């Protein structure tokens, strides 16, 4: 029953478990008179014109949970795909398992009898009476509560004692995540982020529950469902981190460059329109509009968008690169060999790109990207920026750092009208005779239908949806900047759909070329060899060795004891060197563990112990191989 004691006790529990911001907000909230409807023992929410629940809240929750448990909604990790240039180490482990115990198919992947999982995600809390029932019935660790109304959460804290909820999840080595906001995009993105937290290795079989429906929650739920295929994607790979460490040391030592940090509001380019040009299929229909406005906007090519523009006779003011593969250098070099002039193009890139690329440009700026090993070790006084997963994200974030007034996206399709055409006909992808380029550098298949920008549906994939999440967040966090999506691809929430033929900019009162040059001069400039690369190698080596020593202490018994110990190792970030050790190892380690959890539960009980014994053995071998390769990397540093 309602009780001020419940509310006061629940505020204490919120603070006990680290939710001080939530507790402070609820404590300062005044509930509308009459919001709680009481009819004897029956409770409900009074909306003024009607009651929220059909019948009482308790009866509604009991019936809803009973129906759900008959056929729970769960999301599953899919069998691994082979052939990625980033996953050689992980694929070796997957292949050994399949050879010994057999491969899994999609039918096996999308069904599961085991009730345990990392998460339960509840869209809506209402009075929250469904939550204890779900916790009692299902063995998950983390509860994610997504709610649009603070008043509903406060009411729930009034009508029931949350102490058993907190303590039971704590006993399971879990926690509660509260996400409260009135914006659908914010809710969906925050839910996605929460699912990539401490229980990320256990996301297979996690639960999704819709407690009530509303326009805001329904849209958040739909957006979240679009994101699901990218949920299991790693944010880093060991071998990739090693390549980027080597490249960053070389780039910072060998080239003249400036270091890009976010500019002040009086930036030379402040308030200017920016064109971000990718190489999605629809850019072919945008080139005339870009050319007509090229003197009145800052034109930024993103990755392979460079070749598309140059072949159309358009020279971008700024070119952005983030990929570290040698094949990207060959593509850049081929543009010069094809007679295209790079003079006046300002390269803004991650220092992790192939060290041969900066030498092709007259003006170079580097940007440290968040979470990379090289950024943690080498950024010094400069700030590492959150630049997203792809070069289109990167270019857009840099434009924001230059204080763009408006941003227009061309060829940033994040999908395609037809599954087969993944890039522009004039992009390196489709012009190259190299099968790897033609495959989109091994890109994931376009097998996901998502809402289109100019049409009802387009085809997309997990990486593009991961890219879209970044755009959603960037746009939501920068309401003063207007975003226009001129691409005939996936819809991006917050970006106004605008056909390229309708883009007509006013004449610029200053030369864009001159303003870009001024921007370059405003940055911190370094001559080759002058950048103060911190003497980090010794400390870095010690941190990685400490990481591996801690890893060897992990219990290799039941899977959950193993996972708890592993998470303790992965969560240790006492200083920048330990954080770098985590960035180096955690992505690859978690992918292998995520696979182990997925595969274990598709086996019959009589095979599980044999699998675990074998999995621990080959997992240890891979991690030991990572240490050996790391030591070789530092010998060359």
Chain-averaged pLDDT: 91
Distance between the termini: 66 Å
- The unreliable regions are 436-442
Number of distinct helices: 24
Taking the sheet with the most strands, its summary is: 10 strands, mixed
What is the total tally of β strands?
19
Walk across the major sheet and give the strand order.
Answer: 18-17-14-9-10-11-12-13-8-19
User: What proportion of the residues is helical, as a percent range?
Assistant: 40-55%
Please tell me what the overall shape is.
Answer: globular
| Backbone structural class | alpha/beta
Per DSSP, what share of the residues sits in E-state strands of 2 or more residues?
Answer: 5-15%
If you compute it from the alpha carbons, what radius of gyration comes out, rounded to the nearest whole angstrom?
26 Å
Brief digest:
The protein is of the alpha/beta class and about 625 residues long. The chain is about 45% helix and about 15% strand.
Main features:
single chain; 637 residues; alpha/beta; ten-stranded mixed β-sheet; five-stranded mixed β-sheet
Secondary structure: elements and pairs:
Blueprint: H1 4-16, H2 20-27, E1 36-39, E2 42-45, H3 57-70, E3 73-75, H4 88-101, H5 106-109, E4 117-123, H6 130-137, E5 140-147, H7 150-159, H8 163-171, E6 176-180, H9 184-194, E7 206-210, H10 215-227, H11 238-254, E8 257-259, E9 273-277, H12 287-292, E10 298-302, H13 305-311, E11 318-321, H14 326-337, E12 346-349, E13 363-366, H15 373-378, H16 391-401, E14 406-410, H17 428-431, H18 435-438, E15 448-451, E16 457-460, H19 462-477, E17 482-485, E18 496-497, H20 512-522, E19 524-526, H21 537-552, H22 559-570, H23 576-600, H24 605-635
Parallel strand pairs: 4-5, 4-7, 5-6, 8-13, 9-10, 9-14, 10-11, 11-12, 12-13, 14-17, 17-18
Antiparallel strand pairs: 1-2, 3-7, 8-19, 15-16
Helix pairs in contact: 1-2, 1-7, 3-6, 4-23, 4-24, 9-10, 11-23, 16-19, 21-23, 21-24, 23-24
